[in-house]
Amino acid sequence: MSDLPNCPKCNSEYTYENGLLLVCPECAYEWSHLEAGDAEQVRVWKDANGNILQDGDTVTVIKDLKVRGASGVIKGGTKVKNIRLVEGDHDIDCKIDGFGTMQLKSKFVRKG
Q: 15, 50, 73, 80: least surrounded by Cβ within 10 Å?
C-alpha cells in the first residue's frame, strides 16, 4: 500500500508522485508535498545579528534584562555558556551565575 496522501479534491487513493508534485489520476489535480503537510518543518534559531544558534553555544546578552521575581537585572555583556534551544516564546534554556536556571529570548543575545 502507498503511504501517499489521498487527493484533497476528490479523495482518491490512487495518487502518485511526478517529480516534486503529487498527482491524482482521477481528477487530474496536482499539489505539492508542502500543501499535503508531508514536509517536516525544521526550526532554525537565530540571534540578534542573524547568526544561527545551536545547542551548547556560548552567547552574550546584548541589553539589560529585568528578571521577574528577582531584585536585580541581567546586565548586558553577561556571557551564558552551554545553552539549550527549545520551542516557545523564550527559546533558550540556560543557567546564569547568580540567577540560576532561566529562559531567554534569542533576540536578546548574540553568539560568541
A: 50
